[in-house]
Amino acid sequence: MRRSIFAPIALAGALLLASALARPAAAQMEQQALVDRSTLAVQEMLGAAGGADAAHYNDAVTMLRRARAVMVCPRVFRAGFILGGQGGSCVLLARDGAGSWSSPAFYSLGAGSLGLQIGVQDAMVMMMVLTDKGLSALMDSQFKVGADASIAVATVGAGISGATTAAVGADIVTFAKTRGLYAGIALDGSLISARSDWNRVYYGQSVGARQIVVDMAAHNPGADPLRGALMRFGGAPAATAAPSYQQQQPQGFQQPNYQPPPSYQQGGGVQAEPLR
């Protein structure tokens, strides 16, 4: 009798526990899907070593190796007839001085336009953030592309060569791979907004973009394939050239009173596990 009474209670408890454990994973499905699409976008945009877009690919990889951070928008959709609109979801990742990429912070991208236009366009977009100033601008709750004259943004479409020259002095360089009826994608006037609600769902706590991408205080293993793809194509940050007098010294030469530089230590937060 006692066993028959407690069996349904035990079963109900087990079901409640299973439901509680499954709820966080189910809540992250939309965010994880965006992270997975971003991984595929990185592989598609940077993995086309041959073909007509080889020069574009090489420029993008070169910029990624110099980048302080990168924003990936796996699908920016634009459609219009007279009145047009543009939108998409994005992730932002940054890396520390040792070359380890952070987990992603979530953003939305939206814009409206007015003009004689008809058609649809589907684009993958990567924004290579080359300076700390550019990264700080993107980490604001809202950033309007082209509105801040102190932030230089260069846009390069697929198949356009000379991106490295065109991007000299830019804080952010945008690469786009487009499909559809529009000749190119224009990001000027687009509003990039932080999605704090998505960050909270994905990490199970309230964390801001700076805590995620700079302090590396939050990590989700579901983002490891994306971090690995960026490590694969971007490698370590580009090293600063040594002074000429050091370049002329024989191998093994050390300046008098030489002291080895201290190892880099990311300040604040819990650093994500490096991917090698």
UniProtKB/TrEMBL annotation:
<keyword id="KW-0732">Signal</keyword>
<dbReference type="InterPro" id="IPR051702">
    <property type="entry name" value="SH3_domain_YSC84-like"/>
</dbReference>
<dbReference type="Pfam" id="PF04366">
    <property type="entry name" value="Ysc84"/>
</dbReference>
<dbReference type="InterPro" id="IPR007461">
    <property type="entry name" value="Ysc84_actin-binding"/>
</dbReference>
<protein>
    <recommendedName>
        <fullName>Ysc84 actin-binding domain-containing protein</fullName>
    </recommendedName>
</protein>
<feature type="compositionally biased region" description="Low complexity">
    <location>
        <begin position="240"/>
        <end position="257"/>
    </location>
</feature>
<feature type="domain" description="Ysc84 actin-binding">
    <location>
        <begin position="111"/>
        <end position="231"/>
    </location>
</feature>
<dbReference type="GO" id="GO:0035091">
    <property type="term" value="F:phosphatidylinositol binding"/>
</dbReference>
<feature type="signal peptide">
    <location>
        <begin position="1"/>
        <end position="22"/>
    </location>
</feature>
<feature type="region of interest" description="Disordered">
    <location>
        <begin position="240"/>
        <end position="276"/>
    </location>
</feature>
